[in-house]
Structures are given as C-alpha cells and as structure tokens.
Amino acid sequence: MKELLRLLPQLARMIGRIVLDPGLPRSAKVALAAAAVYLVTPIDLIPDFIPVAGVLDDLLVAAVVIDGLLTFVDRKLILRYWPASEASLDRVARVARKLAIWVPKRLKARVFSGR
Fold first, then answer.
1. Which of 5, 22, 38, 65 is most enclosed, with most CB atoms within 10 A?
2. What integer is the mean pLDDT of 63-77?
3. Average pLDDT, whole number, for the chain?
C-alpha cells in the first residue's frame, strides 16, 4: 500500500503517456479519462473532508482502474510505461486486485478491453 502511495505521481504521468499509445484499447482510454476526471474533481461519493473515509472512494476507483488495466491490457504495453520495476508492478497488482474484488470481472473486461 505504501509503495502504491509513493508511486502515485509517477502513475499519473504514466497514465498520461499510455493514453496516447495506439495499442491501448479505446475503452481503456475512456475508463482512464473518466477515472482521472473523478479523481481530480472535488465532487465525490464520500466528501474528502471526512477523515479516512473521504479518501476511500478515490482509493477504490484508483484500485479498480489499476486492476482493470493490469488484467485486461497487454502486460508488455503496461511495462513499457511502468515507472518502476516489474516486481513493483506485481505488488501493486496484488493490492489493487484485493481492493477491487467487489467489481465483477466481466464488467472490468467490458470496460477495459471493449469485450
């Protein structure tokens, strides 16, 4: 979890670069854009001024996006833009998968791969 928080600025830059890659499915680009808008807008399901819980919805959205990307997008494409080691990608993937377990896999497949 700490590693994910340390990587957040680099992840934001990575997402900006990967969205421009023609190999990324259009549906994944739309999901990334929607998540980015949600994360930067002050309007949330749980307001940010509520201690701990206010950040929870942002963390869950980020986890769903990361899990979806790592599950349904070509790993080589992700690694091309990943800002750290492959081992760190695996650790982040495990955390994201645990946090995003409540989202049905077929919904993530539809959103991230266009299936």
1. 65
2. 89
3. 83
